[in-house]
Design a protein that fits this description.
13 helices, 297 residues, single chain
């Protein structure tokens, strides 16, 4: 008992630095942000407690509603494309290919490059005057004028989704590739002997074995996409006319640029229910037996 008590005591001491770090840099800022959202604090002014006044005002704010819709569309569109392309790349890289190590390194590049640098590169690629895409299409005679990718509302939305997909694919692909390599080869061998097709092996072996990993990976993907800030801010700063404004960028504009710390904090706190919803879907889904086995039983 004494030895067990000493080990427990030592374990507590070893955990204290990590606990202190989480409290100082995670729990405290989160709690302080929630508190600010219930005040009318401004830059240079302590403000007063106003309850849910900021949230009531946000409900009637058309720009906030646009930001919420943009965030949901951006998250859903980018997450779907990242999963489909990333899953395909994972299956492709799991096969015997020449120069497989080099191909994996190339696939990882978008994830390794800092987000700000990626955004600057896309800003030049999509620039209304110097876009390499417009230049190529004009050279082929397909268009007679430059395309204003970041100046048109719909094109701007599509452009930021494309940039986010390009950056997020490696995370999905490499993680699912690691999962694919844990699937026993004997299962595929037995299925081949039984005459199963490629689709049947994918449906009955690959997908069921990867379902828990897919759930976790997609949860992280949704969280990363929903809270995207750097890419949007460098590319469009939320424009044109709030067409690409997300909740994260709007919070920054109101709190830091506009000095309305209470209002900006309320926008940031309003993101929490969406994030918790994504986590809960994954958590409860993983608890269901059919998710773990890939069937409906």
């Amino acid at each position: 008992m004494a030895l067990s008590g000493n080990r427990n005591f030592q374990a507590i001491w070893f955990m204290l630095p990590a606990v202190a770090f989480l409290i100082l840099f995670l729990a405290y800022p989160l709690a302080y942000g929630v508190w600010l959202s219930f005040t009318d604090t401004r830059m240079g002014s302590p403000g007063e407690f106003i309850g849910i006044g900021n949230y009531i005002w946000l409900i009637d704010d058309p720009v906030f509603i646009i930001a919420v819709m943009n965030t949901l569309i951006f998250t859903a569109g980018a997450s779907i494309f990242k999963f489909v392309i990333g899953f395909y790349l994972a299956i492709l890289l799991n096969k015997r290919l020449p120069f497989k190590a080099l191909i994996r390194a190339v696939v990882l590049l978008p994830w390794i490059v800092p987000t700000a640098l990626s955004a600057i590169a896309f800003w030049w690629i999509l620039d209304s005057q110097f876009s390499v895409i417009s230049w190529s299409l004009k050279s082929l005679g397909l268009i007679d004028h430059n395309i204003n990718f970041l100046g048109d509302r719909n094109l701007a939305r599509a452009s930021v989704i494309f940039a986010n997909v390009w950056r997020g694919i490696p995370f999905i692909a490499i993680t699912l590739l690691a999962g694919l390599q844990t699937v026993p080869a004997s299962l595929y061998e037995a299925a081949t002997i039984d005459g199963a097709s490629s689709w049947q092996m994918f449906r009955r072996i690959t997908y069921p074995m990867l379902t828990p990993i897919i759930a976790v990976v997609m949860t992280f993907s949704v969280l990363f996409t929903f809270t995207e800030f750097q890419l949007i801010w460098v590319l469009t700063r939320g424009g044109p006319a709030n067409a690409t404004d997300l909740m994260a960028t709007l919070s920054y504009q109101r709190a830091i640029l506009g000095g309305q710390l209470g209002e900006g904090s309320a926008i940031a706190v309003a993101m929490i229910p969406f994030l918790l919803g994504a986590i809960m879907i994954s958590w409860f889904g993983l608890q269901r037996q059919k998710w773990q086995q890939g069937n409906d039983q």
